[in-house]
Each structure stands twice: as structure tokens, then as C-alpha cells.
Amino acid sequence: MAQKNTAIVTGASSGIGQATAKELAAKGYHVMLAARREERLVELKKEIEAEGGNADYKVTDVTSVDDMKSLAQETLEKTGRIDVFVNNAGLMPLSFMNKLKIDEWDKMVDVNIKGVLYGIAAVLPIMEQQESGHILNVSSVAGHQVSKGSAVYSGTKYAVRAISDGLRQEIDPSHEIRVTIVSPGAVETELTNTITDEDVLEAFKGTSMEMLKAHDIAKAIAYAVEQPPHVDVNEILIRPRQQP
Ligand code: NDP
């Protein structure tokens, strides 16, 4: 079995990415933390090291091809391998289509789709050379169903699932490279902070469901990563029990 010891997590400054970085570090991975907010990455690195883990960080904007390439290259220089890549960074400024929030549509396409593609482009050649690796792309329950206000966000998350499944099928079968789609339902994070449409925010009020915690998704990601090389967990679809 190939040695598995380095993981890159994008969107590690918050929510699911932060929890995933901690979980993988606790399992012995040297974790490369990537996001734009440096102070949060510094704090997380300290926290992981205080628990006895190994972490480095690189300030990264996933919408930049160059940033993503340097993230992969720097990780390779530091650890010599990239075993796990968690393409997690994402935005969810939900809005009704007729509000024409074109800037927000652009941002979602840039981060949620292009960011994922740039991540794949950065690590795939390295994993092909290693003949092993695991790419986990974070989609959503919104990548399975559309609701009012989620048209564009869902469009990006459907795209993540399509891209992931296409990539999975194209992997050279002689290589131990796996692709997993991670599709969470509602998780308590900062994700809703970017919503500016008052009507969407109003619709959110009064929902009393017990949401998932970021750690619940981190554990699901760790499950997929820890399977033996002949097992590829194609997708993890995970909702809060009360979510329809
Ligand atoms: P958070 O808002 O807590 O975290 C989002 C992360 O993405 C932050 O670390 C942020 O870092 C990073 N990010 C955003 N834009 C960029 C960028 N341009 N470059 C680099 N990093 C960026 O949300 P979650 O943890 O909830 O979201 C993580 C993923 O999970 C997303 O893909 C989201 O769509 C998905 N998801 C979340 C669900 C939920 O209910 N919370 C449900 C289903 C899917 P920084 O701002 O520092 O760059």
C-alpha cells in the first residue's frame, strides 16, 4: 500500500475545511492549510501543533491558477508528496434569479467551479506521477436538488459532481488515485454570511432544525480517505436527520 501522509485542505480557515484539517492532522497527516485569511491559518497551525500534529499554511486564492500551482509545489517541496487534496473552499450567496446579482453569480462560478478545476489541475499531474492520491471535491445536497434561491449555487454544485465523476472515470486504472464527492446538507458554519438577498434571509428565519457540525463532515471525509486503496467511496451524501 502506498504511504499516505500529506493532505492539502482548501478553505481551511473556517467551517468544514478547518474541522477536516484538524481531523486529518489528528490521524497523522501533515496538513497544508490553504485559504485567504492568513491570521486564521496561523491560529489553526498553532492549534494543530499544540495537539502534536504537523501543519503548514499557504495563503491561497483558489480563483488564481498561479496560487493553486504554488500551493501544490510548496507542499511537494515541504513533504515530498501530495496524498490527499480536499477541494473544499466555497461560497453560497443564495439569491433569487430576478435580483440579477451577477457579481455574486460570478464569484460562485469562480470559487465553486473554477477553484475546484484549478485545484485538480494543480495536483493531478503530481498524483499521476506518484501513481496514487485522493481528490475529494465538496459539493452539496444542493448539488442533488434545486430550491428557490439556490439556482446558481446548485448549478455550481451539480457541476462539481459532474466534474468529479468524469475525473474518476478517466483515472488510469493501474494508478491508486481515487476521487470522492462530499455532499453535505445543512452544516453550522459561516457559509450563510455572504447572503445579501433579504428575501432569502427572511426565508431562512424560523428554521429550527438541528444542523450538522463541521466535525461531522470532517469525520465522513476521514472515513473515505482511510479506506484501503481498492475502495473508492464515490460520494458521501450526509444530511441532518431532520433535513427533508
Ligand atoms: P465557511 O464559510 O465556513 O468556509 C468557506 C471557506 O472557503 C473559508 O475557509 C474561506 O476562506 C474559503 N474560501 C472562500 N473563497 C475562497 C477563495 N477565493 N480562495 C480560497 N479560499 C476561499 O463555509 P463551509 O465550511 O460551510 O463551506 C465549505 C464547503 O462546504 C463549501 O464548498 C460549501 O459550499 C460546502 N457546503 C457547505 C454546507 C453548509 O451547510 N455549511 C452544505 C453543503 C456544502 P477565506 O475566506 O479565508 O479565503
TrEMBL record:
Alphabetized SUPFAM superfamilies for the sequence: NAD(P)-binding Rossmann-fold domains
Top-level division of the source organism's lineage: Bacteria
GO molecular function annotation: oxidoreductase activity, acting on the CH-OH group of donors, NAD or NADP as acceptor
PROSITE patterns recorded: ADH_SHORT
Key words, A-Z: Oxidoreductase
Signal peptide location: none
Annotated InterPro entries: NAD(P)-bd_dom_sf (IPR036291), Sc_DH/Rdtase_CS (IPR020904), SDR_fam (IPR002347)
Similarity comment: Belongs to the short-chain dehydrogenases/reductases (SDR) family.
Name assigned to this protein: Oxidoreductase
The species this protein was found in: Planococcus maitriensis
